[in-house]
Amino acid sequence: MKVSFDIDCTPEEARRMLGLPDVTPVNEALVAELTKRAAEMAQNMDADKMMQQWMIAGVQGFGDIQKAFMEQFAKAQGDAQSGTGEKD
Fold first, then answer.
1. What is the number of structural domains in the chain?
2. Which 8-state DSSP code applies to residue 6?
3. How confident is the model at residue 29 (pLDDT cuts 50, 70, 90)?
4. Distance of CA 48 to the CA centre of its chain
5. Domain containing residue 19
6. Helix (H, G, I), strand (E, B), or coil: what is residue 3?
7. Distance from C-alpha of 22 to C-alpha of 16, rounded to nearest angstrom
8. How far is the C-alpha of 25 from the C-alpha of 12, rounded, in Å?
9. Which H or E run contains 59?
10. Of 15, 20, 43, 45, whose CB has the highest number of CB atoms within 10 Å?
11. Is 71 domain-assigned?
């Protein structure tokens, strides 16, 4: 036997019904603090320097991925030519 029922209520009503605490003031304070800190960081950041760091890391990361793929392809090619046909 399967029994189901729907409760139509707002999130606030559900929170009260389940006896959960109201964390709205804490959430608002946290969001305000994060917004303030993000604004301070945006004023102090050097966009040119940040973009240079991101681009170097991105290109280097792509090179590492490409190298890993080429090593795997070379290994697979070597296995196919030797006839081992091993699979991980």
1. 2
2. -
3. very high
4. 25
5. 10-45
6. coil
7. 8
8. 14
9. helix 47-82
10. 15
11. yes
Instruction: Please check whether residues 16 and 38 belong to one and the same domain.
Output: yes
pTM exceeds 0.70, yes or no? no
What lies within 8 Å, CB to CB, of 9 at 6+ separation is 17
* 19 and 39 assigned to the same domain: yes
Q: How far apart are CA 73 and CA 69, in angstroms?
A: 6
Does 53 share its domain with 73?
yes
pLDDT tens per residue, range 31-57: 999 999 988 887 777 777 777 777 776
86 lies in some domain? no
Residue at 3 is within a domain: no
74 vs 53, more confident = 74
Paired tokens of 73: 């392809």
Kindly state whether residue 88 falls inside one of the protein's structural domains. no
Q: Is the pLDDT of residue 59 over 80?
A: no
Query: Token digits for 64?
Result: 């590492």
Locus of tokens 């969001």:
31
